[in-house]
Design brief:
By secondary structure, this protein is of the alpha/beta class. Helices cover 48% and strands 11% of the residues. It folds into 3 domains: 59 residues, Homeodomain-like (Arc Repressor Mutant, subunit A); 69 residues, Orthogonal Bundle (Arc Repressor Mutant, subunit A), CATH 1.10.10; 280 residues, Nucleotidyltransferase, domain 5, CATH 3.30.420.10. The strands form 2 sheets. A 6-stranded mixed β-sheet has the order 6-5-4-3-7-8, covered by helices on one side. Helix 14 packs across helix 16.
Length: 452
């Protein structure tokens, strides 16, 4: 059972179980997808009356704008702090994807900077207001609890300890592969990444024009992708995509059947992968796909899924698997060593995003060369989420078997084919970047390697 509940002390020693705002929204979404109240109650180990109460308050709950993990939204809590923590989560994610160690000191310093910047833009702001937020130790501990972020360390010397933890885990992992006789085809890694699917390089005229316009900024439209593949690199699992809209306008226009998409489509207000969505993906996509793959290739029905300990990845995941997938075992990376070891972080996601940008520029070139549309007209009126899905499919398909296999060299070097894998990812980067820059200039965009 996912650990979505927390216990709050009450008088007399009794404990009352509470459900987070985030999970209440998941319960509503699950019910709206057709799941029965009784099944939801059983999944959460709650009474049907509790679930019905949540469903009755669905409109009120939908309006709550809470950071992930929050039980209640306090009216006394300044709205600007919610904005600070949302921006902070995006910043932390970007730093970790880049392989940087994120410490308490860095987070508090960034939080104070974000707060000062946001408050300075409010009407009637004074210097006293700007200094009202101290980013204290207490705030930091509460932020970790509210947001569910685990991979944060308190001390600057963490870099060396992270390296030691990564080295010890890799040694233990390789022994496990030998003792349990896992084949590269049977070992998988998955990881989430945010994608600003309509973003253009900073210095292009389209970006400058959007920044100058008031209201919604389409380039800030984000979705989350969960990508997964095995260590041999010959099998990619259908990705999970989480967007803020269940039925975008383009779906109706294109008469989309979600079951036929190249991704498992799910939605919530913040476009985040949650525990419920992750377990759904495991049971509905990952389990059936890997079982079919192993049987078709006459391989033993045995799978190991290795991943980080993100809030969306429940520690008791194996308990949530359907009986037919009891051959799947799960192993978690140690905290603060994920960026050093996780295969998806070793150029795979980076390579995917470069290929996405390349395919996007190719699409822009094709449209502006073969139609009467200008790039600005195409970008504003014709590039929608269905276009994005086609490009995601093309980019994920373009991540090669060799790239996927080479990404395991730090964690499981024995499974990497050939002897040139160490320099492979770096060797392949410049041509892709050069192609993107060349395409950008061809369609009239001011762009260089640093922008990419």
């Amino acid at each position: 059972m996912p650990p979505m509940k927390k216990k709050v002390e009450k008088e007399g020693g009794k404990k009352k179980e509470m459900i987070t705002v985030e999970v209440k929204k998941e319960i509503i979404e699950k019910h709206e997808r057709g799941v029965r109240v009784a099944d939801i109650a059983r999944f959460y180990n709650k009474s049907t009356s509790t679930i019905c109460t949540i469903l009755k308050k669905r409109e009120e709950i939908r309006e709550l704008d809470a950071v992930k993990g929050v039980m209640r939204v306090s009216k006394q809590r300044p709205h600007v702090l919610e904005d600070v923590e949302k921006l902070l989560l995006v910043w932390i994610n970007e730093k970790q994807l880049a392989g940087d160690t994120v410490t308490e000191n860095l987070i508090c310093k960034k939080a104070k900077g974000l707060y000062a910047n946001l408050v300075s833009k409010l009407p009637g702001t004074s210097t006293e207001n700007e200094e009202g937020f101290k980013a204290s130790r207490g705030w930091f501990d509460n932020f970790k609890r509210r947001s569910g972020v685990h991979n944060i360390v308190r001390h600057r010397e963490a870099v060396s300890s992270d390296a030691k933890a990564a080295e010890a885990f890799a040694a233990e992992f390789q022994k496990l592969m030998v003792s349990e006789r896992y084949l590269p085809q049977q070992v998988f890694n998955c990881d989430e990444t945010g994608l600003f699917w309509k973003k253009m390089p900073k210095r292009t005229y389209i970006t400058a024009e959007e920044i100058a316009m008031p209201g919604h900024k389409p380039m800030n439209d984000r979705l989350t992708l969960l990508l997964c593949a095995n260590a041999s690199g010959d099998f990619k699992v259908k990705p999970l995509l989480v967007y803020h809209s269940e039925n975008p306008r383009a779906f109706k226009k294109c008469k989309v059947q979600k079951s036929q998409l190249n991704v498992m489509w799910r939605s919530n207000s913040k476009a985040w992968v949650t525990r419920i969505l992750f377990v759904d993906w495991i049971n509905e996509v990952f389990g059936p796909a890997v079982k079919r793959y192993l049987l078709e290739n006459n391989l033993p029905l045995k799978v190991l899924l290795v991943m980080d300990n993100a809030p969306a990845h429940p520690p008791g995941l194996e308990d949530d698997l359907l009986e037919e997938f009891d051959f799947i075992k799960v192993k978690f990376f140690p905290p603060n060593a994920t960026s050093l070891l996780q295969p998806m972080d070793q150029q795979v996601i980076s390579n995917f995003k470069k290929l996405y940008t390349k395919a996007l520029f190719q699409r822009c070139f094709k449209v502006t060369e073969g139609t009467y549309l200008t790039l600005r007209e195409f970008w504003k009126n014709h590039f929608h989420i269905m276009s994005c899905l086609k490009i995601i499919d093309k980019a994920w398909d373009g991540v090669t078997k060799k790239t996927l296999n080479s990404a395991w060299r730090k964690l499981w070097s024995d499974c990497v084919f050939g002897h040139d894998s160490e320099g492979f990812s770096h060797e392949q980067e410049p041509p892709v970047v050069d192609e993107i820059v060349s395409l950008g200039k061809t369609i009239g965009l001011k762009v260089n390697e640093d922008d990419i």
